[in-house]
Structure formats: C-alpha cells, structure tokens
Amino acid sequence: xxxxxxxxxxxxxxxxxxxxxxxxxxxxxxxxxxxxxxxxxxxxxxxxxxxxxxxxxxxxxxxxxxxxxxxxxxxxxxxxxxxxxxxxxxxxxxxxxxxxxxxxxxxxxxxxxxxxxxxxxxxxxxxxxxxxxxxxxxxxxxxxxxxxxxxxxxxxxxxxxxxxxxxxxxxxxxxxxxxxxxxxxxxxxxxxxxxxxxxxxxxxxxxxxxxxxxxxxxxxxxxxxxxxxxxxxxxxxxxxxxxxxxxxxxxxxxxxxxxxxxxxxxxxxxxxxxxxxxxxxxxxxxxxxxxxxxxxxxxxxxxxxxxxxxxxxxxxxxxxxxxxxxxxxxxxxxxxxxxxxxxxxxxxxxxxxxxxxxxxxxxxxxxxxxxxxxxxxxxxxxxxxxxxxxxxxxxxxxxxxxxxxxxxxxxxx
Length: 413
Known about the structure:
The chain is an all-beta fold.
C-alpha cells in the first residue's frame, strides 16, 4: 500500500510509553520476479465483504495502475475485518514476487499475515509474535523482511536464547526463521528502518518518549558499523519515512511534530547518505504515513501536501484531512502542486509514484473510507508540463484517470 496508515501517535504513547513504535509503515517493493514473474503483473488489494477482509488483485498496467475488475483470491479468515476496529496497515509484495506481506491490526495488537502466491495460502509470519512489518530486504533470497517485534504470544513465540529482548528482526517469509539485530535499544523504541537499494545498509531512527526527540543511525545490514547521524529536537523532531534515492547517494525523510496531536503537518527533508547536506524542502502531511517518492532519474520528489493546515480538527481526526500531490524539483529548487481536489473532485489525493520516464506522477484519489464499507478509489496520472508553479499557487498540470473506480477497498499494494 503506497499510503500506509499508522496508529495515532497519541495512542502509541499511551500504549507503549514511547514515541515511535514503528510510527511509519510504507510500501516498499522493487526489483523483479525470477521464479514467479506473474505476481508482479498484478496490483493487490484488500476489500471488505460480509465475511470480513478478502484479498483481491487486478492486472497491473504499464504505469503500475490496476486495469480491469478486481479478482477475489482468498479471505484472510478468523473473522478478520468484521469489527470496525480491524485495519490493514500495509500490503507489500516481496522482491521475488513469491509473497505478499499483509500487516494488520486487531484489538489484541498487530500481526503479519503472509500470502504465498504459489500456494494461494495465508499464514502468520513470524508466528506467535505481535509486531510490525517494516520493509522487504532487496538482496539475499528475495523474500526476507525487516520486522519490529513487540510482544510474544504464548509459549510458541520464538525467543533468543530463551529470553525476550529483541531489537530489529530479519524474517524469512518462507520459513519464518528470524535473526535479531541488536540495536542497543528495546524494539519499542524503533520508529522506522529502511534498507538501501543495494541492501548493504539500513537507516533507522529511535525515540524514547514524548518530548524526547529522536536519533537517526545508519549501519551495515548485519548490524555492524553502527553510526549515529544526528539527533532531532524541537517541534519537528520525530524522524522517519526514510526513502533512499535510486542510486543510494541521498535520503529523503520526514520530520514530524513531537506532539500528542497525531496528524500535525510535517517537514520534508533530504540529506546525503552519510547524514550531511541536510535541507528542508517543503511542508507535508504528517502522521498518516504517506511516503515521499523519488523519481527514477533521482531529480524530483513527490509527496502529499495537507491543504487545510489551519484546521485544528484535522490535527486530531484523519477523516478531516484534505490532501494534494506536490512535487519538489531538486534541480530547480522548486515545489509545486500537481494534483488536487479541484482536479479530481475527491478529498484525498495520495500515494504518489512515478512513471518510468519521470514525467508523470501516478496517484490514488478517494474520499475518506467508511469503516463498515471501505473506500471507493481510483488511480490518476498528473503530467508535469510546467516547472514554474510553487506550492499553494495555481495548478498547471494535466490530470487524467487511469483506472476503473474500485469500491469496498480497505488497502492496496
């Protein structure tokens, strides 16, 4: 899911006593399938019906958009989706196309359902653990992922030498076998962790509580060579939603308000992969987990702009958000709106990705989801035809729909 919903910051603070706790969940899937290439030819969805959440898919078009009708695959089972508090946090297809990770939240906590594309079967990975899916690792066997373990669930929970003291886990989606990376902090302190495009490094951030800010580190993928990059303090001091540039030389990230209000506006920043040359680029939406997206040529960043930043109700209620798509041109040092509600007629314009030529932003437009029925969404394209308009001024892009309208949508890959 390009936009990955996150638990409100205030709720996380009340439940765990810390800022963070995987505050940012995002779609991260790249590479191509060698063994199961057909999996990459589909866009995956979770939809809601009378029996709960059902996994579905549609053929994937040239720009990553779905085409044709949704095909139901398999219910997630165990009545998941019948309660209005049930939620899908993210859907992410593994780099080799063999597995779809489904991060879901129920009243007892968050777990990962793993869909086996070849067998068309769902199981928990890792089993007997409550925690958060973070990212697929781009190297290795093609189906190992970063995972933030929170709590063991019964005697079958995997322990390290008989004790529960986890840091950051790597988990094999096929076997469920995990390895622990000791970060020197409890797993509850982890905010975000993202591997580099070549899989050699991992950038991550940790926090220790409301008003305490956050620290950002980079390390080798095996946990060695851990390096502290910077400490963030002040209002925008919770760092996460890290996104590496295609060549791995730069990192885009967001700095969220260290505040009990869960949806305050945030800042979009860039830095070198060593933590230098830090620059604030633009105001962005904060707290909803919308990832910034690098263009394939590495010269532009697409992001989600909150259009009603002066609405205090929108700081507290996700349904109040009014969102547009912005683009920052790094070569010209300019930001502008490229898709808004005035063009699509819908309240939320979110989840930007790019066409292969870096000239079109592909995004999803919808109105806020109904907890009982899901949402009605559609994919759109914004062609970048002018570089002169700054954020907040008139739109000068051509915005056209790319897909059919899909109803009862809960989450998408």
